Every structure is written in structure tokens, then in C-alpha cells.
């Protein structure tokens, strides 16, 4: 399919004329949106039969035309939504309409800053995202799935070349990533192309899953494997190597300034991304000051606990490092397998403990997996929710670059990414059949303040429920994780609004790879603490308002019962719940 044909297929199609059925509009608009983004279609499993099969063999167009076409679809959707009479909405429909309006307005609002999004970067660039799509999300149950894998593999090279072209076009306008981001991205890509094709994850993942495909003979398996190896060798690897060459050229004129302030309208761009990721009107100055206050509070709490454990001398950072060094895994060959097994034990224990605070538990399982080796040096732990068809579980993904591993923060990481954090929030959301489908598997954009705020709230909840009662070391790991998120507020705003250097951010207590993440995802790191503070604030307001009638389980039902929503809508939802409780 040519780019012109692809864009024509992705264009907005008229929705039902003069329809007053808001719920039907939600579903129709969602479907037309997802048809234009095949990778989203694979993640969501929104369609069935031939249509889903067709989309599973395609990749998103990432050209400049496609990016602006996406904004055009958002404008059309917003115009359609505004034709409905809001006075006739039910309370649930009003939340859904406001949610969609927020999301589409956000897509439109980014248009002036689309060139500040770099399609090749070390954290979420095309060169890494496509590998995750194929190895983590692409189904492999039928022969059609296997052939679709190869169809996508044929397209990987062209998409990497599209991304390389976009990077060069931006560079010609003076819009470049910092030199250290280019260096990290090239290093990641070199790692990716270093093994023989048959040892690359794109091949090994495919080859390992093929024998489980229904109706595929050994001879067919051998043929399919041979095709995959040839595509990696003759198409994928050459495109990555050309991209490395292109980034090498761009890096020759790249500077070391880290923040958005270095770009035209950089201040406006950062204000937009802060709004996107916090779903508030907070300014960079307000976020920065909130971060400083939280850092001081948390360090004070950690100081007391560290002294009780005998760590009395040095900065909090130095003493935590001493504690981590005292709680290292043994340096043995198979240590990563033991680390993953221990994460699994923590996960199962959390699932049991969560019954005391939650009425609702996802039907989907949650499992632990290691992030691919070529990517993990620049990766953070994360969670991938299950699709609505139940074809795979929720996945808690952890990077294990090593060489040594400490146990201090393992529990809090599991509580954040899995149970009762993202798995309870996102897997439940996928399973909420009462919500419009777009709210169950939002394809329009991030809702980080709620989702990451909930993850950080889950860390705190574990302490509030006494899960660390006999584990002071783990509790320090929990506090250190919260301190890390508070420091993020300071560093992210420091980099993008206060002209901090990369080294200043590192010196403040943030690891280099994390600083680099904030550079390519401005504002996102602020979502965690801002969201957590709001969820805690609303919980305490509910406790005061209801007194002895307050139920933590019911509060969690109210917070999670509408899926991921902006913090302003969360406030409204909780206030409505409080009003109903007072009247009952």
C-alpha cells in the first residue's frame, strides 16, 4: 500500500448522519481512529475476522502528513461531539463526553510542537517501539498471524527510514536532540544489529512461538524462519545501519543543551506538555516548588528510619546506597532468573494482600517478564495491559541490565507496576464493559496523571496498610521510590524551564538514563507525584467528610470505577460519590 493509499484509507469517514446516539458515536469514532493506527488495533484487538487480520499485517504511517492527518481526525471528532445536546447527557455520558473532549483537544494542542517529538530516541523511538510491538503484542496463534508477522517485518525498514528522514528534516531547521541523546540512541541501535540475524530478538521471538501455531508443519516452520532471518538480514539491519549513519551526521552539529527552552517557542511547548501529563493548570514554577517541598518532607522521614537501622552518617542518598550494597543478590551466573522468581513471589503475595482494600480484582492474570536485552540499558520498568479479548495477560516488564541487583526497591516496584498498581487500574479498566470502549483502552493519548498517580498511590497504600510492618528495609525502598518521584518534579522543570544542564540533574540525584528519559519526554515525569497527591488529598477529604462511614474499598471503587480520567474529572467523580454517600 502506498502512502497516498494509506492516508486515503485512514481519512475521516462520515459518522451516522444526525445521530443522537452518543454511545454509538463514541464507538464509531473509536473504530475509525483505530483503523488509521494498525499498531493500536493490534494492542486493543478491537475488531475481529478479516478486518483485524488485515490491520495485524500493517504498521502505522509515521510521516509528517500522517501526524497532521491525526490532528485533522481529532478536529473532526470534536466537531461531531459538539453537535450533541449536552443537556440531554446522563451523568455517565457527561463524563465520557468530557473525557473525549479533553483527549481530542490535547491531540490538537500538540500540533504546533509536533516537530519537537523525535521519532528516533533511546526511550520510545520507532526503532524500539516496533520491536516491542512484534515481540510483545503481535499475536501468534494462527498461520495468518505468522504471515502477518512477516508482513510487518517487511515494513520495519521503511518505517525506520521514515523516522530517519524526519530526523534529518528537523535537523535542517535547527531542531535536533541533544548530542547525548543521539549518542545513546545510536548505541542502542548498534546493540540491536550486533548479533547474527538468527540471534536477534525479532527472529528468536518468532521462531520460539511458531511451533505453538495451529496447523503449521515442521517444513512450513523452517520456511517461515528462513524468511524472517532473510528479512532481518537484508531489510531491517540495513535500515538501522543507515539510521545510525544519519544520526551520526546530525550529531555533528548537535549541542549539549538538554531542555525544551533551547527550541523556538520552547516555553510554550513545555507548558503544553506539563498540562498534558499533569492534567492541571500548574505552572513550571509551581511544580518545581511542590517538588522541593516533597523532597524535604520525604528525606526527613527517611533520615529517621535510616538512623533506626544504624545508618546515621552521610547524606540520605549515600546512606541508601550503603543499604542497597548490604542487600545485594549474590554474584552468580543465573542471578537474573532468581530476581525474576522473587518478583513473581512478591506479585503473588500482593495479590493475596490486596483483598483487604479492594472489592474489584481483574480477571486477567499478571506475569513478570524481562525487558529485551538490547533495550534495557535505556528502559524503565513498565506494565502492558491485557487486550480486551483476553489473548494475553497483563505483563509487568523489568529491565535487568546488572551486573549486580539489590533487593531494597523490589516490593515497591511491584506494587506500582503490577498489584495493586497498574494491573489493578488498567486491567480493570479494560474489563469495564459499562464504559465506552474508548475509555477502556484509550488510543487517543496519555492519561499519566491518573495512571502514574495511581501507581505511586499504590506504593503509599502498601505502607498505609502495614505491608512493610516487618520490613524496614523495604519501607526505605518505598520511601526512596517516592523521593525519586519528588525529585523528578524538580529535575524535569529544572531541565525544561530553568535551563539546568544534564549534569545538574544527575548531581541532584537522578540516574543518567532517567535524566535522558525526561529530556525526550518533557513533562511526563511530573505526572506521578501530582497524580498521587491528588488521590491522597481526595481520600483524606472523604475520610473527614464521612467519618466512621468511610470505606477504603468503596473509595477505591469510586476512583478506579471510571478508568483513567483527568484529575479535574476525578475530583468531580469523588465529589459525586461523597454526595451520594451523604444522602444514603
Number of separate domains: 3
Q: Which stretches of 5+ consecutive residues score pLDDT under 50?
A: 1-19
CA radius of gyration: 24 Å
Q: Count the strands?
A: 3
Please give the count of helices: 26
For the termini, the CA-CA separation is 59 Å
Shape annotation: globular
Strand order of the largest sheet: 1-3-2
Helicity range of the residues?
55-70%
Order of H and E elements: HHHHHHHHHHHHHHHEHEEHHHHHHHHHH
Structural class: mainly alpha
Instruction: Summarize model confidence as the mean pLDDT.
Output: 93
Question: Biggest β-sheet, characterized?
Answer: 3 strands, mixed
What percentage of amino acids are in beta strands?
under 5%
Short description:
With about 575 residues, this protein is an all-alpha fold.
Verbal overview:
With 584 residues, this protein is mainly α. The protein has 3 domains: 3-258, no CATH class; 269-533, no CATH class; 535-583, no CATH class. It is built from 26 helices and 3 strands. The protein has helices at 3-10, 22-35, 38-44, 49-55, 64-82, 91-109, 126-137, 143-172, 179-193, 201-209, 218-251, 266-278, 284-308, 316-325, 335-353, 373-376, 410-417, 422-431, 437-440, 448-464, 472-497, 502-507, 512-520, 527-546, 552-560, 567-583, and strands at 366-370, 382-384, 394-398. Strands 1-3-2 form a 3-stranded mixed beta sheet, covered by helices on one side. Helix 15 (335-353) packs across helix 17 and helix 20 packs antiparallel against helix 21. It is globular and about 65 Å long.
Amino acid at each position: 500500500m502506498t502512502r497516498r493509499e494509506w492516508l486515503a484509507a485512514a481519512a475521516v469517514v462520515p459518522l451516522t448522519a444526525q445521530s443522537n446516539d452518543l454511545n454509538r458515536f463514541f464507538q464509531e469514532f473509536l473504530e475509525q481512529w483505530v483503523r488509521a493506527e494498525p499498531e493500536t488495533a493490534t494492542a486493543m484487538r478491537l475488531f475481529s475476522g478479516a478486518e483485524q487480520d488485515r490491520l495485524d499485517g500493517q504498521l502505522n504511517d509515521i510521516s509528517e502528513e500522517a501526524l497532521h492527518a491525526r490532528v485533522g481526525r481529532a478536529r473532526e471528532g470534536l466537531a461531531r461531539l459538539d453537535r450533541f445536546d449536552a443537556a440531554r447527557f446522563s451523568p455517565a455520558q457527561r463524563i465520557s463526553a468530557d473525557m473525549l473532549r479533553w483527549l481530542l483537544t490535547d491531540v490538537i494542542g500538540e500540533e504546533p510542537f509536533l516537530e519537537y517529538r523525535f521519532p528516533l530516541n533511546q526511550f520510545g523511538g520507532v526503532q524500539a517501539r516496533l520491536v516491542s510491538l512484534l515481540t510483545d503484542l503481535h499475536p501468534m496463534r494462527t498461520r495468518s498471524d505468522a504471515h502477518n508477522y512477516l508482513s510487518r517485518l517487511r515494513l520495519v525498514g521503511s518505517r525506520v527510514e521514515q523516522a530517519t528522514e524526519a530526523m534529518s528534516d528537523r535537523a535542517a531547521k535547527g531542531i535536533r536532540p541533544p548530542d547525548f541523546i543521539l549518542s545513546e540512541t545510536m548505541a542502542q541501535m548498534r546493540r540491536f544489529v550486533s548479533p547474527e540475524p538468527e540471534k536477534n530478538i525479532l527472529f528468536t521471538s518468532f521462531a520460539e512461538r511458531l511451533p505453538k501455531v495451529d496447523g503449521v508443519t515442521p517444513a512450513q516452520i523452517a520456511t517461515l524462519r528462513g524468511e524472517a532471518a532473510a528479512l532481518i538480514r537484508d531489510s531491517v539491519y540495513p535500515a538501522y545501519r543507515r539510521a545510525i549513519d544519519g544520526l551520526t551526521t546530525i550529531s555533528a552539529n548537535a549541542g549539549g543543551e538538554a531542555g525544551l527552552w533551547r527550541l523556538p517557542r520552547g516555553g510554550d511547548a513545555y507548558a503544553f506538555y506539563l498540562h498534558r501529563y499533569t492534567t492541571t493548570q500548574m505552572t513550571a514554577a509551581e511544580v518545581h516548588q511542590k517538588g522541593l517541598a516533597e523532597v524535604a518532607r520525604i528525606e526527613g522521614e527517611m533520615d529517621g528510619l535510616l538512623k533506626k537501622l544504624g545508618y546515621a552518617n552521610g547524606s540520605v542518598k549515600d546512606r541508601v546506597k550503603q543499604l542497597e550494597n548490604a542487600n545485594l543478590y549474590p554474584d552468580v551466573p543465573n542471578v537474573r532468573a532468581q530476581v525474576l522468581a522473587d518478583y513473581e513471589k512478591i506479585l503473588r503475595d500482593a495479590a493475596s494482600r490486596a483483598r483487604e482494600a479492594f472489592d474489584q480484582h481483574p480477571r486477567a492474570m499478571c506475569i513478570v517478564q524481562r525487558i529485551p536485552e538490547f533495550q534495557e540499558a535505556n528502559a524503565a520498568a513498565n506494565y502492558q495491559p491485557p487486550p480486551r479479548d483476553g489473548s494475553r495477560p497483563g505483563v509487568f516488564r523489568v529491565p535487568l541490565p546488572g551486573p549486580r541487583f539489590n533487593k531494597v526497591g523490589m516490593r515497591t516496584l511491584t506494587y506500582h507496576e503490577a498489584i495493586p498498581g497498574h494491573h489493578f487500574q488498567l486491567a480493570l479498566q479494560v474489563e469495564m464493559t459499562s464504559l465506552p470502549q474508548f475509555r477502556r483502552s484509550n488510543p487517543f493519548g496519555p492519561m499519566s496523571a491518573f495512571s502514574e498517580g495511581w501507581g505511586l498511590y499504590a506504593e503509599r497504600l502498601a505502607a498505609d496498610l502495614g505491608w512493610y510492618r516487618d520490613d524496614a528495609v523495604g519501607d526505605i525502598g518505598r520511601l526512596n521510590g517516592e523521593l525519586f518521584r519528588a525529585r523528578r518534579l524538580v529535575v524535569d522543570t529544572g531541565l525544561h524551564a530553568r535551563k539546568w544542564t544534564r549534569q545538574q540533574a544527575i548531581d541532584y540525584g537522578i540516574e543518567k538514563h532517567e535524566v535522558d528519559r525526561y529530556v525526550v519526554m518533557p513533562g511526563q515525569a511530573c505526572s506521578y507525584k501530582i497524580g498521587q497527591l491528588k488521590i491522597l488529598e481526595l481520600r483524606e477529604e472523604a475520610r473527614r467528610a464521612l467519618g466512621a462511614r468511610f470505606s477504603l474499598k468503596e473509595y477505591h471503587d469510586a476512583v478506579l470505577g471510571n478508568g483513567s480520567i483527568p484529575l479535574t474529572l476525578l475530583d468531580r467523580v469523588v465529589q459525586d460519590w461523597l454526595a451520594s454517600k451523604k444522602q444514603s
